[in-house]
Structure formats: structure tokens, C-alpha cells
Design brief:
Layout lengths: L17 E5 L3 E5 L4 E5 L2 E4 L2 E6 L3 H15 L24 H4 L3 E4 L3 E2 L2 E8 L2 H10 L1 E2 L2 E2 L9 E7 L2 E2 L11 H8 L1 H23 L3 E13 L2 E5 L8 E5 L15 H8 L14 H19 L4
Antiparallel strand pairs: 1-2, 2-3, 3-6, 4-5, 7-13, 8-11, 8-12, 8-13, 9-10, 13-14, 13-15
Helix pairs in contact: 1-7, 4-5
């Protein structure tokens, strides 16, 4: 493996390898009987890809996902076909510099058409809804909860997957209509189980996982965990030693960027504004600190 570069990687093209999808952060390439997932250093906020990348962000997302996939292997099967330190296949060797530490070789699963979100704390859109109706995604909650309060029990709040624009929160009954009762129930139960395991582990390392999003797919007739797991992009990470209900929390994730963007007069539509150098540097440091706290290793 080559040494990681501090120059953000924003675009990835591999001549001779077919790219099948370019998402907000990941590029997906077709290797025939498997996919290659590559995490760029792109950052999206409010569903807009920002012009600046965050150095080493793609490495954090990939290496942290490898860590959690291995940790949860007994809880749920996943899409990995190669380990974090396995050499790249021969056809990808010429691109080692671009792919090192930011790529995963995975099974060709059929993704579920819902996002599987678990909330353990009252924050973000959940807090906004709670203030209006004492519910989150239609789920009734006790009165008198403060912003950032821990919920009595984690709740499963699925959403649609929007190709463009915002995902929409839906009820569990609506999720059943989209993917069927058996898959929706399996996905809900696994999401809550994985969240609880990850939350408890992270708490011991000084990080509160306030909420998170999981992706599942069907492979050979079975539900498996795919995409990324408990990363700073798919979750809200809060430093436990600074946790204070009744207000927004400092974070290890891109909430730091969102908070900066909220100070601007930007209308949250493309193009996104340029980020100042100090916001980029602090965000990169936050991503890396989250990785180091959770894994006990330097990136």
C-alpha cells in the first residue's frame, strides 16, 4: 500500500474498469462478479456536494467500515469479499495509489429500497418534529424531553431513498409496503441490534453515537449489511465528555460543516459554497480522531 496523500481525492476514474454509479461520496465499479466501492473525499451537506474535499475522509469511512464489519460479523453477514489489508486484484494494481485504504471489494447485493435509520437521541429533524408534535417519524415519545436527550429506547425510523434531493421519513408500515413485511422486520431488528452493540462499544471509548443509518441488501436470498457502517458520514458522533442535553452538541462528524453552513446566507441548493481552510482542516482532524478513538489505532 502507498502512503495516503493529504490532497483530497474528489474524482475517481479507472481506465478500463467500468464505473456503474457515482454517488455523493462513493464511486462504484463493476469487476464482473463483484463490485469495487471507492470512497472519495467528497463531502455533501444538505444533500449538496460541496466544492472542497476533506483530506483522508474516504480512508476514514472505508477503514472504519472494515473495522465495524469485522466486529459485527457474528451479528449479521456483510458484503465484504476482501479484508482491509488484502492486496488488490491484479487488474487494480495499476491504480493502487488512488485506491489504497479507501476501497472495498464487495458482493453484488440488491440494495433494499429503504434507508434504515436508528435514533438513540433527540436531534436534527427528529428534534424539530418532536417540538411540534411530541413524535419522531410518527412515533409517540414521552413529554418533556430536551434537545439531545437520550431516548428511553432506540427507535427505528426508516426513510425513502431519493435519487436526487432529500430522503423522506416514512413509517414502518410504509417500509413494509415498499420491501415487504419479512425484509422490513429483519432490517428493523438487525438495525436496532447493531446500533445497540455499536453504541455500547463507542460509549466505552468516549463517543456517543446519537443516531445512524444502515444499508442492507439481498444476496443469494439473504439479507446482508452493505455500504458503510457507523461512520462519521452515516452517524452523529458526539464527544461523551462534553455531552450536555438541552442544546446542540459538538461533534466528530460533518455536523461541524453543517453548523458553519448555517451561518451563511446560502439557500442549500447547488452549487455549494467554498469552505474556509480552517473548516476543512478541523473537519479532517475530527474524522481522524473518531477513527482513532473507536479503533485504538492511528489512521
Amino acid at each position: 500500500m502507498t502512503n495516503a496523500t493529504s490532497t483530497p481525492i474528489l474524482q475517481l476514474d479507472l481506465p478500463g474498469i467500468t464505473k456503474v454509479r457515482s454517488g455523493k461520496v462513493r464511486e462504484v465499479f463493476d469487476l464482473g462478479d463483484r463490485f469495487l466501492l471507492v470512497a472519495s473525499d467528497r463531502l455533501s451537506a444538505f444533500d449538496v456536494i460541496l466544492p472542497n474535499g476533506i483530506p483522508r475522509k474516504g480512508e476514514v469511512l472505508t477503514q472504519l467500515s472494515h473495522f465495524w464489519f469485522a466486529k459485527f460479523a457474528d451479528l449479521v453477514p456483510n458484503h465484504l469479499l476482501a479484508g482491509a489489508d488484502d492486496p488488490l486484484p491484479a487488474q487494480l494494481q495499476p491504480y493502487t495509489a488512488q485506491l489504497a485504504r479507501r476501497s472495498m471489494i464487495v458482493k453484488k447485493a440488491r440494495p433494499l429500497a429503504i434507508e434504515c435509520i436508528v435514533r438513540g437521541y433527540l436531534s436534527g429533524s427528529g428534534w424539530k418534529e418532536y417540538k411540534k408534535s411530541q413524535t419522531v417519524c410518527g412515533i409517540q415519545l414521552p413529554a418533556g424531553l430536551a434537545e439531545s436527550a437520550e431516548l428511553p429506547e432506540p427507535i427505528f425510523t426508516p426513510s425513502t431513498k431519493a435519487e436526487a434531493g432529500h430522503d423522506e421519513n416514512i413509517s414502518f408500515a410504509e417500509a413494509v409496503k415498499i420491501v415487504g413485511s419479512e425484509l422490513a422486520t429483519q432490517a428493523r431488528d438487525l438495525s436496532l441490534k447493531i446500533y445497540r452493540a455499536g453504541r455500547d462499544y463507542a460509549r466505552e471509548r468516549g463517543i456517543i453515537i446519537a443516531d445512524t443509518k444502515f444499508e442492507f441488501g439481498v444476496f443469494e436470498g439473504k439479507l446482508i449489511l452493505i455500504d458503510e457502517v457507523l461512520t462519521p458520514d452515516s452517524s452523529r458522533f458526539w464527544p461523551a465528555d462534553q455531552y450536555a442535553p438541552g442544546q446542540g452538541q459538538p461533534s466528530f462528524d460533518k455536523q461541524f460543516v453543517r453548523d458553519y453552513l448555517e451561518t451563511l446566507t446560502w439557500d442549500k441548493t447547488p452549487p455549494g459554497p467554498q469552505l474556509p481552510a480552517e473548516v476543512i482542516a478541523k473537519t479532517s482532524a475530527k474524522y481522524q480522531e473518531a477513527y482513532e478513538r473507536l479503533t485504538g489505532k492511528a489512521l
